[in-house]
Amino acid sequence: MKEVSVSLDIINTLGPTSAIVLAVIQQNKIPSENFDELISNLENYLKFENRENLIQATQKLLKLKLIGSSDSATGKKDNVYKLKLPGKSPAGLKKQMHSNWQPNLEVYEVLLMGGISKEFSANKLQEFKIYWGEKGLLKDNWNSIFVDFVRREWVKEKSPNKGAPTQMHRNWQPSSDAYEVLELANIPKNVSQSYILEFVLFWEEDGVALKSWNSKFVDFVKRKEIVNTINNEENKRSNNKEEGHGESSEQTKDLSWSKDLEL
Question: Would the CA dihedral through 58, 62, 64, 67 be positive or negative?
């Protein structure tokens, strides 16, 4: 399978699995008219992903009309929409936030695709404008900044403790999103799971309260993998040196008899 490029904005909007499925379909021009054939083709391209996840991701794309499907009765193909992402202002037009600023309509469409209602987004607008208005910074991507702001607020709203810091506990488990992020970094789920106990024990004893343990876990696993990779490389080099010295020693030993020869 050739490499597939996926925009980070699309990953944040659709989720990692749906974003990858969409990219594979588009970049490999996989026909999407027949659902069963589409899933079979995706299984061939994405061998690391199980069928159930592929079905869920594909159904999500169909629901959002980002890919097409044929009506079994009429053979008529659905209209396919393009995924709209909030863009920057025209080049060189950096502006300060002001009280009359309004996000583009595309912003609400992107947030709606992520399950965030327009009402919730609109209710956060005034808070957003006050915060950035006081900063006085010049930006050309206020739409994207607003999307990120609303997403964070949505996560806080849906959290059982609404974003309040919590302490680590013995039964804590990473979210599926954390595993997906690590898999995108080529760290399999079973490898990530092997670090959970160490992670939980460390932070449980520390007693610190954090808002996002998932991001902390992702960073923890990545650091561990980097350290393990470095250690493995050092061990290999050390073993190679020892083998080299061993061969040299053997050669010296084999030639030691020559010292007793009288020439």
Answer: positive
